[in-house]
Amino acid sequence: MTAGRADADAEFSVFVRAASPELGRVAWYLCGDPVRAEDLLQHALLRTYLAWARVRRGDPVAYTRRILSNARIDGWRKDRREALTAPLTMPEPSADDGAAARAERDLLGRALRALPPQQRRVVVLRHLLDLSEADTAAELGVSVGTVKSTASRGLARLRELLAEPSGPTAPGRSTR
Amino acid sequence: MIARHSTPLGDADALRDRLAHAAPTIVVDPDAVMWKAKRRRALVRVSTTAGVFVAILAAALVMRPWGGSSDPTTMVSPPPEPSRPVEIQVVPDRVTPGDVVTVVLHANADNGLTFGVAAELERWDGAEWRPAGEVGLCLLEWGCIGTVTSRIEAVAAIGLGAVPGQPGLSTLMTTDGLSDGWYRVTQRAALGEGAATGLFEIRAGLNAAPPPPPGDEVRLSVEPALVSPDGGLVHVATLVPSGPDGTLTAEDIEKADARLASSALVQRWDGQKWLDVVEVSVEPRGTALGAEWGSLLTLPPLEEGSYRLVRERAGEPSAWGLFAVISGVSVPE
Q1: How is domain A96-176 classified at the CATH fold level?
Q2: Which of B177, B236, B241, B244 is most buried by its number of CB atoms within 10 A?
């Protein structure tokens, strides 16, 4: 291995360790499912690595997030985990993972999955990541008008779903 | 860097905080990602090299600079299939692209074979059979139609046998997505060793196959679905779709069955429309048997072709089911 590639790999490792929590959260917003979110994030990071020579000079977090938000979040099957389990050197998952937290996560995950994929993308970028309407439109390749209408409808729907006494009951299409 | 903007929607902040707090902590091992990326790069290099080789080979096969013919829409018909204990009859066996065909197992000899509903499809290229897909055949009572795909993920675990003189149950598949040509459908025995094969032809411009009855309406099954030109006894049963909640009871079938007329109209398909042939009486069903066993009726001698039995329903659209008249099959008396 050349010294240049070793440096690039080391740089990429630092990036992954630093950005994984934030990008993992985005992946979960988009999938509503922790396992699929992990798959999705691994796929996005793989693509980022393949473009690392170019991406490292810009904003790799934004680049990876763009891959996440444009991925097929409703039919994810590619790049299933193989040897991508976290080793002992990786940070431990959150200790706050009791039953109540899991129930809350499940409830929110079901609500997110109940939104149609494109509506979910817009809500995530516009409201959960707080991007501007113009940036959301640019990231998804749609018009600002589409972002406006989709974002407000999506947020309203998400509110409705979370206001339902027993949580959302319509999971939408299969996510596997 | 993308600028962040506060949202104009009041409680979006609260929702954002709630989701951020509930989000799982996802950690990814960068070494594993890099290992996988490098492996993919290596695979891409190998597959690119292989792809160039395959493209050259494919071009050579199509152009055949050494002579010969490989017209993908060959008009050279395939040889007849060798005789087997169990064969497949596809009816109609000449259809236009997109038509639905009925696939029926029928036995020439005693056998201990049990087949499933998975079938392989091959297309004749003028010289040999080439894989053309797989299909999960749909039993008539399932109300679905099997579609050809590159690979079927799973099929219902159901055993289909074939006894001499008694054509098997009707299964349906669509030819949608298949181009003109001759096709061979193969069902391999799940129990016992053997395979059943049958041929059919798809060609634009041929007569269209008769449409099957809608799977989501009350319809009839005619068994056997292959009838001798001499006519004979068949069972006609009422198939009822499940309710909106997915349930179906014997009472539902009895109720639908009770609304059917006591006679059935036999109609022949002329390639475009149904033509009346004859009205036949349906024998009263034995009281000891449930509606799912069906009623008997005797078909008169009929010309070879595609037919349907139509029974009027009080206050509802008629119910009907397909059958075919072909030589070489016998009907129990």
Answers
A1: Arc Repressor Mutant, subunit A (1.10.10)
A2: B236
Q: Compute the Cα dihedral for A126, A130, A133, A136 and give only its sign.
A: negative
Q: Is residue B92 part of a domain?
A: yes
Fold agreement (A1-73, A96-176): no
Determine the Cα–Cα distance for residues B31 and A158; give it in Å rounded to an integer: 37
d(CA A155, CA A138): 20
* A155–chain B nearest CA distance, Å: 8
Shortest Cα distance, chain A CAs vs residue B246, angstroms: 17
Answer whether A124 touches B (CB < 8 Å).
no
The pTM assigned to this predicted structure is 0.52
Chain B residues with beta carbon closer than 8 angstroms to that of A108:
18-19, 22
Can you give the residue range of the structural domain that contains B108?
86-202
Residue where a domain terminates, one of B202, B230, B252: B202
Clarify whether residues B45 and B150 are in a common domain. Answer: no
Query: How many Cβ pairs within 8 Å bridge chains A and B?
Result: 133
pLDDT for A25-78, tens place per residue? 999 999 888 888 888 898 889 889 988 888 888 899 999 998 888 776 654 433
* Residues 37-56, chain A, touching B (beta carbon < 8 A): 37-38, 41-42, 45-46, 49-50
CA nearest A149: which of A162, A172, A133?
A: A133
Is B311:B264 a contact under the CB 8 Å cutoff?
yes
